[in-house]
Amino acid sequence: MKRTLLQGAAAAALAVCAALPAQAVVINPYVLNTGTPTGGLAQSNMIGTENWVAESFTLQSTTTINSILTYALSTSDASDAGQTFTVALYGSKTQGSAKVPNVNWYDPSGNQGQLDQFEATYTAGGGWIGQSGLNWTLAAGTYFVAVEVDANDGVSGLQLPTGVSNAPANVALYTGGQGYAADTTPAADAFGLQVAVVTAVPEPSSAALLLAGLAFAGGVARRRSRR
Question: Which helix (H) or strand (E) covers residue 56, if one does?
Fold first, then answer.
């Protein structure tokens, strides 16, 4: 009778497995999520060829970055639609009591210290803009995401609204010269930024099979202990 019950439980678990979707479940935890800014165009950072801004995030262990989104608007919304701006990733260095992007204008590769970057395309009406599927694997440490406009970009009125609910620890500004400077009012100047990773968890069917196996093993152990 006990064997019949155990076999029935295992069969039921397998039936559940078959009914579950055969795909991995993924979650998207943010390593930085400032929340949507409330400042609008009236309270925003203007981004141009010598006006850039960057925000920090910190990783506690090796992590793969999946997506980066920034909340952007434009004072030239119609003409900027379809035009690009640059989202760059930097390491960090200490400047006084704060951290700033580790820019190296003399980098022989020509990247000025950027660890990676992509071109984001502005969409009419603005909002959260960026790219997913980045697969940037980073070691533990503090990094900066910078929003920049260079000679290859076409936007002319890009604005990053402020007024976020979860400001990062460090905000840095570039206004020309050799590198970024620490923002003395980071909470006031922080813009909307989301940096997310993708973490795969066991497929539902795999998890159910594991549970069924544990239940069966437990039943066998109990049966042997009663002999």
Answer: strand 52-59
Q: Which of 132, 154, 144 is nearest to 180 (CA)?
A: 144
Is residue 41 within 8 Å of residue 73, measured between CB atoms? Answer: yes
If asked whether residues 11 and 82 sit together in one domain, one would say: no
Residues 117 and 97 in one domain: yes
Cβ neighbours, 10 Å, residue 181: 15
pLDDT of 63 higher than 70: yes
Q: How far apart are CA 173 and CA 180, in angstroms?
A: 5
Among 110, 111, 132, 112, smallest CA distance to 120 is for 132
Q: 198: which residues sit within 8 A by CB, 6+ positions away? A: 26, 27, 28, 64, 66
List the domain range (segments joined by +) for residue 13.
2-24+202-225
pTM of the model: 0.77
> Does residue 130 share a domain with residue 152?
yes
